[in-house]
Design a protein that fits this description.
Aspartate Aminotransferase, domain 1, about 15% strand, 2 domains, seven-stranded mixed beta sheet, alpha/beta, Aspartate Aminotransferase, domain 2, 12 strands
Length: about 400
C-alpha cells in the first residue's frame, strides 16, 4: 500500500471486510462487542489487538477503517477519529498538557481554537504565548526551554496567512516541543505537514473530507505512541470519539477527496484571478496569486493555492452584506470545503467573539468575505460575484 498513489489509497486503504465479502465498507452500528469466554474478555481489556474492539467509545471497525485510510493519506503512523474538528483540537492539546506547561501559538486562529487556548487551557494553569505567525523572530523569542507545544494553522482562517512550517518546527524541536498543526485550509491533498516538520496534524473532517455537508467529524494524526498512549486514553474516557455512521460517510467522502479538492482549487484560482484588481475590492487574498505576500512559501509547502480565498469589499460591513445578499449561487453559511460554494462574513460570525481590536490586529476587516469554492462551474461563480459587486 505504501507504493500506491493518493487516489488508490483513498479508495482502498484500511478496508476491512466481514465474512460476507461486502464491496462497500460496512457500518458497524453497535455500542459494544461480545466475547466467547470470560477469559477472552479479560485478555482484551489487558491488551486489545489490532482487529479487536471493546466498546464504541474506545474503537469500532468502521471508525478504524477511516483512521487507517486518513493515516495512509497523511503518511502518519496512526490516527484517532473524533466527534468533531474541535474535539480533535481540544483532545490533542488537553491530552498532552498539564498545569505549568507552556504553549506558543500563532495569533491568527479560528475563534473556537482561540477559546480553547484562551479560556480552557489557561483555566487549568497552562501558560499560552501568542505571536505573529509570520514573524520567525517572534517565534524564536517566544519559544522557551520549557515550551511543550506549538499550535498553529497551516493557513490561517480567514486571512490565509501561510506560516513557514519548516522553520517553526526547527525552532520547536530545538527545545523538544511538539508542533501541532490545524491543516484544514491546506487539506491533506495539498500539504503533507508531517514532511514539513509537524509532529501532530489535526483536521475537521467535516470540511473537505466529508465535503458534502452531511456529518461532523475530526481526526488527530501522529506517531503511534502519541495517538495510543497520549490521545486515546484521554478521548476514550472523556467521550469525544466518532460515531460509526459518521466514519462511514467520511470513508465514502474520501473516495472522491482528491478529485474534489483539485477541482475546487482550480475554481478558486479562476475566481481569485478574475476578481483580483476589481475596483470595488480593496484586496483579494489567495495563496495561489503572485500578489499574496507568502505566495512563494505557499508554493513550496503546497501543491497549489487551495480551495479558499477571501475578498475585502470596499465600503465595510454594509457593502459586504450587500454582496452576500445579492449572490445567487453561493450559500451563506459558516462551513467550508463543501461541494457547494459557501460565503461567510467572519467579523460577524466565525470570529465575532473577538474584540474589534483583535480583529483589526488579525486583519479581519468589516468588509472581508471568506469564500469556499465548490464544484460549480467557475464561470458561473465569477459572473455571480461580479453581478453581486455591481449592487454596491
Amino acid at each position: 500500500m505504501q507504493d500506491w498513489n493518493t487516489r488508490t489509497k483513498m479508495v482502498h486503504a484500511g478496508t476491512r471486510r466481514s465474512q460476507y465479502g461486502e464491496v462497500s465498507e460496512a457500518i458497524f452500528l453497535t455500542q459494544g462487542f461480545v466475547y466467547d469466554t470470560a477469559e477472552q474478555a479479560q485478555d482484551r481489556f489487558i491488551q486489545t489487538g489490532d482487529d479487536e474492539f471493546i466498546y464504541a467509545r474506545y474503537g469500532n471497525p468502521t471508525v478504524r477503517m477511516f483512521e487507517e485510510r486518513i493515516a495512509a493519506l497523511e503518511g502518519a503512523e496512526d490516527a484517532f477519529a473524533t466527534a468533531s474538528g474541535m474535539a480533535a483540537v481540544s483532545g490533542a492539546l488537553i491530552s498532552m498538557l498539564k498545569a505549568g506547561d507552556h504553549v506558543v501559538s500563532s495569533r491568527a486562529l479560528f475563534g473556537s481554537c482561540l477559546y480553547i487556548l484562551e479560556e480552557i487551557l489557561t483555566r487549568f494553569g497552562v501558560e499560552v504565548t501568542y505571536v505573529d505567525g509570520l514573524d520567525l523572530d517572534a517565534w524564536a523569542a517566544a519559544i522557551r526551554p520549557d515550551t511543550k507545544a506549538i499550535f498553529l494553522e497551516g493557513i490561517s482562517n480567514p486571512t490565509l496567512e501561510v506560516i513557514d512550517l519548516r522553520a517553526v518546527s526547527e525552532l520547536a524541536h530545538a527545545v523538544g516541543a511538539l508542533v501541532l498543526v490545524d491543516n484544514v485550509f491546506a487539506t491533506p491533498i495539498f500539504q503533507r505537514s508531517l514532511d514539513l516538520g509537524a509532529d501532530v496534524v489535526i483536521y475537521s473532517a467535516t470540511k473537505h473530507i466529508d465535503g458534502q455537508g452531511r456529518v461532523l467529524g475530526g481526526v488527530i494524526l501522529g506517531t503511534k505512541d502519541f495517538i495510543r498512549k497520549t490521545v486515546e486514553p484521554y478521548l476514550k474516557h472523556t467521550g469525544g470519539s466518532m460515531s460509526p455512521f459518521s466514519a462511514w460517510v467520511l470513508l465514502k467522502g474520501m473516495e472522491t477527496l482528491d478529485l474534489r479538492c483539485r477541482a475546487q482549487a482550480a475554481t478558486a484560482l479562476d475566481v481569485a484571478t478574475a476578481l483580483d484588481g476589481h475596483p470595488k475590492l480593496a484586496r483579494v487574498i489567495y495563496p495561489g496569486l503572485e500578489s499574496h505576500p507568502q505566495h512563494a512559501l505557499a508554493m513550496t509547502q503546497m501543491d497549489c493555492g487551495g480551495t479558499m480565498l477571501s475578498i475585502d469589499v470596499s465600503g465595510g460591513k454594509e457593502a459586504a452584506f450587500s454582496v452576500l445578499n445579492a449572490l445567487k449561487i453561493c450559500t451563506i453559511s459558516n462551513n467550508l470545503g463543501d461541494a457547494k460554494s459557501i460565503v461567510t462574513h467572519p467579523a460577524t460570525t466565525t470570529h465575532q467573539r473577538l474584540s474589534e481590536a483583535q480583529r483589526e490586529t488579525l486583519g479581519i476587516t468589516p468588509g472581508m468575505i471568506r469564500i469556499s469554492c465548490g464544484l460549480e462551474d467557475s464561470r458561473d461563480l465569477i459572473a455571480d460575484f461580479i453581478a453581486a459587486l455591481d449592487t454596491i
